[in-house]
């Protein structure tokens, strides 16, 4: 028997799960950086025109629009230029909030590197704080950003505001 | 309307899979070459616009990192369409027509090999009633090819001849991917991929990038010897509902061609963006292209088809032949969407 | 530049966290129908359609202009789809205006939208792409360090952001289309809301909305026949800069300053704070109001927060900002930029209803996107340029 259309409950929504697989290519610059990571080194590239050092390197200087090739190794120590305290959980992280996420200007680099600060009370984190990279155990190293677990404070006097304010 | 010309064109060779470089690394030399060939200093180009698709690149905001290839400093006037670069060129042409700028850099990139283009393009379909059926681009094209053959206007042999001609022409194109001498009869002996289409009736999967520079009036004349003037450009979209269309014809291409002035003069060549062999027949018919018009001297999309790139490439290839004095009047076409839903036609001419 | 262009129709949807009552097509139609009705036109009268939206991953539909061609009456017409990240709504309006200014078309329908509830916006914004650093903290986590940098540079009082949020949320009560509506909103309520990414609190943050905005843009000739007062486009500008480079100022980006400078030059504006009657600017986190006041030249560097503090940016202030409630109240990402442009147009047409700024004759529409790197702006006025 057929029902009048009006009496049929209308469909409000449907779920259509989508699954797509992609193969990503690191590209030359990222490959160099990640191989450096596998060796416990932080590698950047210097722009031939403006001479700034980019970490992680991108194969090009976004400001000058030219290819970058000169490799520069930078220190695992750096300065917090700015930061925020994250209080909401993230799907991709196992760390429980609150935690500090900071822009860190590594010694020798000219752009800050985004990373988490751990091993200190989150409200100790401040602009100018000196920090160092904390690496995973050597046996766990692979060609990945994750070799550096986080950054932690070091016993050095804070960097002066003037020394990093142009990176804000 | 201002006189606007394509003054330069550069492309990365289309290959099945670029494992050595990411999008920025592929794009940067292409952009640099197009700018160098244009004779215009990079920082004097008034407008920059690109075409790309996040779902091809496997990440949102894919066009943002591509900006690194361009050197957007000091800040530039820049835009982006989530479409084939041919439509980015259209946006650039309009911008120049407003008088706001006199030149534009247009580029597009697509690493089709990263994902499964059939699955990606399935997501172009109506998300509620069609996409969930799981139909892919090749099967849709096959439906269209079946309808075309059933109309009695063409045979499978006509399809094979399009492929053979394209591959042969591609021998002269160092940037094409599939090239060689193939015999139509041998092609017909191959098995079907999705009947009535055989593997060779379908475009290859390609990774590529392309860039073009546009300039207006005297700026174009000063910059290069023989600008390829855009005498007309138009694009039209058809209904998304495949059941409502006569898939054997392309009225949007016919209309765009008419608005672009395709028939107002003799054409030496036509670069038609036909990712499937039968589609070239439909397009040529819609545009009323006679025997005197050389079709796809570059080899067309059957020889190389980087998604989001192949349409702009057709414009570049047509312009190039005018730049080099091989042709005086050319038509270039780009398509988007299932079964030729959206079509752009551009008519180019040497002075 | 080029030929005159006017906004003769504005339409938007009721923005909400999940518009389950409409499909994507239904959502855009709601806005488009309203814009056409305002313009006294039908779909048949439109020459071209320009669609704008942010990443397709927000809905899971690739290149939705293809699917929406029928819903937007675009069959047989030219149709474009613009995507410039968060600024897209503004850029889309500019591209649509270009078509009229170039003399290519007489009447253009432009629609921007996002139906974020259909996919997962948080996921789409933070897809972890291999070989790239994971984005650990979401959009708020990206911007809040910059806000902290602004606070340090300017010495602004810590509750500046709360004051902005209070103002915008009060304004939203006068906008029937607002997604977030807090009838009893108070300073204390905002101050005590959970801190998300220090210093940004929950009630200082934009929502994730489903919504659409539509405009009908017309030539001078077509505008003459419009039933309601047109808003004339005096100038448009867009500027982009790279996301990341050595020495980049992300707090007061040069692309924003250059865009505003170019816009004001084209529009003949020398003192924006005095010459604009109202501004609709893209403020997704409260502190962006003072930051943009400086970036846009309404206030000297380091003093944008004073405008908020003085009440200058309130609805009854001398420089009302976001009378509509802004992005803090409704944020369908693809549409948010066009909503700013649309609200600016409504103001100078005298059609902003309860949140109308009396006698508004010249208004600024502003949008930004990406890592504070893409800017699009326009100036609209009640008289032709």
Overall description:
The complex is a heterotrimer of chains A (168), B (351) and C (385). With 168 residues, chain A is mainly beta. Chain A is 10% helix and 30% strand. Chain A folds into two domains: 24-74, no CATH class; 76-168, OB fold (Dihydrolipoamide Acetyltransferase, E2P). Chain A is built from two helices and ten strands, in the order αββββββββββα. Chain A is extended and about 80 Å long. Helix content of chain B is 34%, strand content 21%. The longest helix of chain B has 16 residues, at 23-38. The radius of gyration of chain B is 19 Å and the shape is globular. Chain C is built from 14 helices and eleven strands. In chain C, α3 packs across α14 (333-349). Chains in contact: A-B, A-C, B-C. At the A-B interface, α1, β3 and β4 of A face α1 of B. β6 (77-86) of chain A pairs antiparallel with β5 of chain C.
Topology:
The complex is a heterotrimer of chains A (168), B (351) and C (385).
Chain A: H1 27-38, E1 42-46, E2 53-54, E3 60-61, E4 66-67, E5 70-74, E6 77-86, E7 99-106, E8 113-117, E9 130-135, E10 148-153, H2 161-164
Chain B: E1 4-11, H1 23-38, E2 47-51, H2 54-57, H3 62-66, E3 78-81, H4 85-97, E4 103-111, H5 117-122, H6 137-150, H7 156-170, H8 184-188, E5 192-194, E6 197-198, E7 207-216, H9 217-223, E8 228-237, H10 251-259, E9 269-271, H11 277-286, E10 294-295, H12 310-323, E11 329-336, E12 342-349
Helix pairs in contact in B: 4-12, 7-11
Chain C: E1 5-12, H1 24-39, E2 48-52, H2 65-68, E3 79-82, H3 88-101, E4 107-115, H4 121-125, H5 138-154, H6 160-172, H7 187-191, E5 195-198, E6 200-201, E7 210-219, H8 220-224, E8 231-240, H9 254-267, H10 272-275, E9 278-280, H11 288-295, H12 304-309, H13 326-329, H14 333-349, E10 362-369, E11 374-381
Parallel strand pairs in C: 2-3, 2-4, 9-10
Antiparallel strand pairs in C: 1-7, 1-8, 4-7, 5-6, 8-11, 10-11
């Amino acid at each position: 028997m057929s029902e009048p259309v009006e009496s049929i409950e209308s469909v409000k929504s449907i779920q259509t799960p989508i699954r797509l697989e992609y193969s990503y290519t690191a590209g030359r610059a990222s490959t160099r950086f990640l191989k450096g990571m596998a060796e416990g080194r932080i590698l950047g590239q210097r722009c031939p025109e403006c001479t700034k050092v980019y970490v992680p390197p991108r194969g090009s200087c976004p400001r000058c629009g030219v290819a970058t090739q000169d490799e520069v190794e930078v220190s695992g120590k750096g300065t917090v230029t700015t930061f925020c305290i994250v209080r909401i959980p993230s799907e991709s992280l196992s760390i429980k909030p609150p935690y500090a996420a900071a822009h860190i200007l590594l010694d020798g680099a000219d752009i800050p590197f985004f990373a988490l600060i751990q091993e200190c009370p989150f409200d100790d984190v401040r602009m100018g704080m000196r920090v160092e990279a904390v690496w995973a155990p050597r046996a766990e190293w692979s060609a990945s950003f994750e070799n550096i677990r986080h950054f932690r404070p070091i016993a050095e006097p804070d960097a002066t505001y003037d020394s990093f304010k142009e990176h804000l | 309307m201002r006189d606007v010309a394509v003054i330069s064109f550069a492309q990365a060779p289309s290959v099945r899979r670029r494992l050595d470089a990411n999008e920025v690394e592929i794009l940067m030399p292409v952009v640099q070459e197009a700018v160098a060939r244009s004779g215009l200093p990079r920082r004097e180009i008034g407008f920059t616009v690109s075409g790309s698709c996040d779902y091809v690149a496997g990440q949102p905001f894919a066009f943002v990192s591509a900006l690194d290839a361009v050197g957007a400093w000091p800040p530039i006037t820049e835009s982006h369409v989530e479409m084939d670069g041919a439509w980015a060129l259209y946006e650039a042409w309009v911008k120049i027509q407003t008088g706001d700028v006199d030149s534009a850099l247009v580029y597009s990139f697509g690493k089709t090999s990263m994902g499964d283009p059939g699955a990606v393009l399935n997501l172009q379909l109506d998300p509620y009633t069609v996409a969930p059926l799981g139909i892919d681009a090749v099967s849709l094209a096959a439906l269209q090819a079946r309808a075309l053959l059933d109309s009695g206007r063409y045979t499978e042999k006509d399809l094979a001849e399009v492929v053979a001609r394209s591959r042969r022409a591609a021998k002269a194109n160092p940037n094409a991917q599939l090239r060689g001498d193939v015999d139509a009869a041998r092609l017909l002996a191959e098995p079907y991929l999705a009947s009535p289409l055989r593997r060779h009736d379908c475009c290859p999967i390609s990774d590529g990038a392309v860039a073009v520079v546009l300039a207006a009036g005297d700026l174009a004349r000063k910059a290069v010897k023989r600008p390829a003037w855009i005498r007309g450009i138009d694009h039209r979209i058809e209904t998304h509902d495949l059941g409502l269309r006569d898939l054997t014809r392309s009225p949007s291409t016919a209309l765009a061609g008419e608005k672009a002035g395709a028939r107002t003069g003799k054409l030496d060549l036509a670069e038609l963006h036909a990712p499937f062999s039968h589609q070239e027949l439909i397009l040529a018919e819609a545009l009323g292209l006679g025997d005197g018009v050389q079709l796809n001297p570059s080899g067309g999309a059957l020889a190389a088809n980087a998604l989001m790139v192949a349409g702009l490439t057709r414009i570049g290839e047509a312009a190039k032949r005018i730049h080099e004095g091989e042709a005086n009047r050319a038509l270039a076409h780009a398509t988007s969407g299932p079964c030729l839903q959206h079509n752009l036609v551009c008519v180019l001419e040497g002075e | 530049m080029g030929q005159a262009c006017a906004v003769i129709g504005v339409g938007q949807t009721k923005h909400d966290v999940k518009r389950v009552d409409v499909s994507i097509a239904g959502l855009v139609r709601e806005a488009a129908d309203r814009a056409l009705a305002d313009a006294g036109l039908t779909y048949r009268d439109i020459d071209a359609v320009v669609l704008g939206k942010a990443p397709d991953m927000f809905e899971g539909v690739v290149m939705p202009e293809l699917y929406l061609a029928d819903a937007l009456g675009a069959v047989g017409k030219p149709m474009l789809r613009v995507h410039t990240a968060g600024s897209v709504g503004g850029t889309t309006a500019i591209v649509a205006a270009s078509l009229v200014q170039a003399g290519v078309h007489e009447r253009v329908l432009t629609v921007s939208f996002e139906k974020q509830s259909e996919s997962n916006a948080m996921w789409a914004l933070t897809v972890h792409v291999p070989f790239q650093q994971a984005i650990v903290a979401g959009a708020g986590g990206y911007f809040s360090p910059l806000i902290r940098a602004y606070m340090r540079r300017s010495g602004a009082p810590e509750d500046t952001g709360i004051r902005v949020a209070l103002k915008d949320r009060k304004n939203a009560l006068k906008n029937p289309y607002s997604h977030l509506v807090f009838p009893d909103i108070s300073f204390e309520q905002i101050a005590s809301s959970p801190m998300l990414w220090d210093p940004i609190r929950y009630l200082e943050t934009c929502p994730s909305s489903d919504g659409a905005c539509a405009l009908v843009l017309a030539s001078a000739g077509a505008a003459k026949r419009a039933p309601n007062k047109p808003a004339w486009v005096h100038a448009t500008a867009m500027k982009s800069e790279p996301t990341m480079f050595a020495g980049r100022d992300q707090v007061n980006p040069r692309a924003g300053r250059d865009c505003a400078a170019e816009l004001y030059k084209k529009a003949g504006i020398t003192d924006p704070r005095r010459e604009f009657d109202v501004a609709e600017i893209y403020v997704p986190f409260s502190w962006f109001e003072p930051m943009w006041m400086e970036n846009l030249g309404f206030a000297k560097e380091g003093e944008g927060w004073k405008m908020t503090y003085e009440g200058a940016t309130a609805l009854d202030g001398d420089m009302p900002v976001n009378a509509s409630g802004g992005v803090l109240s409704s944020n369908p990402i693809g549409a948010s930029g066009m909503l700013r442009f649309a609200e600016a147009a409504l103001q100078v047409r005298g059609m902003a209803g309860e949140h109308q700024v009396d006698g508004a004759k010249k208004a600024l529409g502003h949008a930004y996107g990406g890592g504070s790197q893409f800017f699009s702006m326009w100036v609209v006025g009640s008289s032709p340029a």
